[in-house]
Amino acid sequence: MAQAKVIRALAGKALLPFAVPCSMALAPVAAPSATKRRCVDTRMAGEQTRTASDARRSALMAAAQAGDRVAYETLLRDCVPFIAGLARRQGVPPESTDDVVQEVLLTVHRARATYDPRRSFEAWLRVIVERRAVDCLRRTRRHGRREVHAPFAYASHADETIDLAAGLHRREDAARIGAALAHLPRRQREAVRHLMLEERSLGDAAVLTGRSTGSLKVNLHRALNALRLKINRGD
Amino acid sequence: MDGRHDRLIGALAANLAPVRRLPRPLLRTLFWLLLVAAIAAALAMFSNGAATWQRMAASSDMWLAALGSIATAAAAAFAAFVLNLPDRSRAWVLLPLPAAVLWVAASGLGCLRAYVLPGTHVAAIGETRDCLAFIVGLSVPLSAALIVMLRRGYSLTPYLAAAMAGLAAAAAAATLLNLFHPFDAAATDLAVHAVAVAVVIAAARALGGRFLQNSFAGPVTFLPGGSN
Predict the structure, then answer these.
(1) Would you list the domain boundaries of chain A?
(2) What is the ipTM of this complex?
(3) CATH 1.10.1740.10, applies to A60-144
(4) Nearest-CA distance A45 → chain B (Å)
(5) Which residues in chain A are closer than 8 Å to B24, comparing Cβ atoms?
(6) Who among A106, A112, A131 is closest to B19 (CB)?
(7) Distances (CA, A) of A196 to A22, A99, A174, A216, B19
(8) For residue range B12-67, what is the model confidence (pLDDT) as tens digits?
(9) Looking at chain A, which residue has its C-alpha nearest residue B17?
(10) What is the DSSP letter of A112?
(11) Is A119 in the B-facing interface, judged by CB distances under 8 Å?
């Protein structure tokens, strides 16, 4: 009978968001145990809180529609955990929850003119969250079909474009050119070293060697011809 | 809370502008129907009203077909405006179905009578081409007006809302065609009407849907990386 009294009292104060069936409110019931009574009271309190929070959010949204920035910021901050919870319940993976929250916040901003304060704000928001969550899941599934997440396979994959003998060939070439250079006269060798290997300008090389630029150019030309002949002969 | 959310909320709130709430779907539908009525009144000045009345009075199914088409237009426009609100069910798309069934069935009856009654004028190919041009041509401004109105809302299913707008415009154009229809519905005529309606719905869905989606997905006027 105590349970019926609680229900009648709450219904009388218009705190119940649903109609109470007569059989439930008026039928004689056995006196509930303390645990049972606590469950009923908690459920009623939960419904009351939900309704109160919905009314508060609805009022904040109405103020935001009128241009109240503080109310809007308060509302959006208040809604973030609600949105994240709903998204997780829709099956959005934890790493994508923040993306869904961001998309929902943007959608709320763009769609704020469509909210009617006579209707439930949470119901309005819930539909938007569900829709954005479905979009996210579809996107994830599409990516999953196209791409495979295999970090070990990626790390251990052999790059077939690499020429394993390239380093060896480079070393052999360097040895051959070095040997050919050693056989050149000193002035030609200096010209090659300064102008080609150390990539100095003609003026710098002239200062360093104390020779004229014309002499350097002639020596470089002769040195390159001699090297070409030597390497082509295979000496 | 994630820093990203903080920054986004700060930016959204800093750039908040007051918005005018959308009027109810019924009110928006009535506004669009007023536009259709104005076009009908303008067209009536060029039509032979006596002949139209005589034709309509001669057969009850023509009345039924006209009633069906105007009800389809009204119901489809209402469904489009309801779908323009994110929290409404997509089941509203079924709203124009009963009226559309009445429209098609009554037109089909007229089509049957064309074979039963001797001496009924059956539309020639040239005349049906005119019908097609009339429905498609008149649907362009009507559906454009609807889609411009839909831009104010936010549909989570823009293509569905645009298709409903196309159906509403095509049904309204088919109703207004009665003013100039010098013959009863025959099978060829009915087929041409069906093709015209399908063309308008498909075009509205493709073009209008993309237009609505782009407008909904458009950039929000703030700098997400800003200091606000």
Answers:
(1) 60-144, 183-233
(2) 0.71
(3) yes
(4) 26
(5) 116
(6) A112
(7) 102, 56, 14, 12, 72
(8) 898 888 888 889 999 999 999 999 999 988 888 877 767 667 666 666 677 788 88
(9) A67
(10) G
(11) yes
